[in-house]
Specification:
This protein has four helices and eight strands. The chain has about 160 residues and is α+β, with helices and mostly antiparallel strands. It has a single domain, classed as Beta Barrel (OB fold (Dihydrolipoamide Acetyltransferase, E2P)).
């Protein structure tokens, strides 16, 4: 019996890639992509393969449009991420359908750096970092930013 091999179509490969990324996003995992747009301090659009995904930085809350320090938080995230290849450690989806993820550039967490500079606060509700050690690290950095009156906690750093 001879086995006949048929070439895999580009459509099949694309669909398999989208399915895999969707499963990783829903169940957690690590994805790599390029930030193509920064919407605000804690939300970015990311190109993952052929797909663009909206990502909410997990565990933090940065100022919204019209709030003090919105522009500084957005500029900070833009400088750290825009046009760069980024590691995303996913944690499912939020209630607006955005992918929730820790966003890592090199060896730095964008969320942690925003908190360190007083440009975001750590969530303490069900969106808080789920690992107790990570949560404590974020809270420690936030306390330092608060005591230094950085960003949203007082004066600019």
């Amino acid at each position: 019996m001879e086995i006949v091999r048929k070439p895999v179509s580009a459509v099949a490969v694309f669909l398999l890639t989208v399915f895999t990324l969707t499963v990783q996003a829903a169940w957690g995992g690590t994805i790599y992509g390029e930030v193509v747009k920064v919407l605000d301090g804690d939300t970015v659009d990311v190109r993952i393969g052929e797909k663009t995904e909206r990502v909410r930085i997990y565990g933090i809350d940065a100022p919204e449009r019209g709030e003090p320090h919105y522009a500084a938080a957005k500029a900070f995230t833009d400088k750290m991420t825009n046009g760069k290849r980024i590691k995303f450690i996913t944690h499912g989806r939020g209630h607006y359908g955005r992918l929730l993820a820790f966003v890592i550039v090199g060896d730095k967490s964008v969320g942690l750096e925003l908190v360190r500079n007083g440009l975001a606060r750590v969530y303490s509700n069900n969106f808080a970092p789920d690992n107790p050690l990570t949560f404590e690290r974020y809270k420690k950095v936030q306390i330092h930013a608060m005591s230094g009156d950085y960003g949203i906690w007082g004066k600019e750093k």
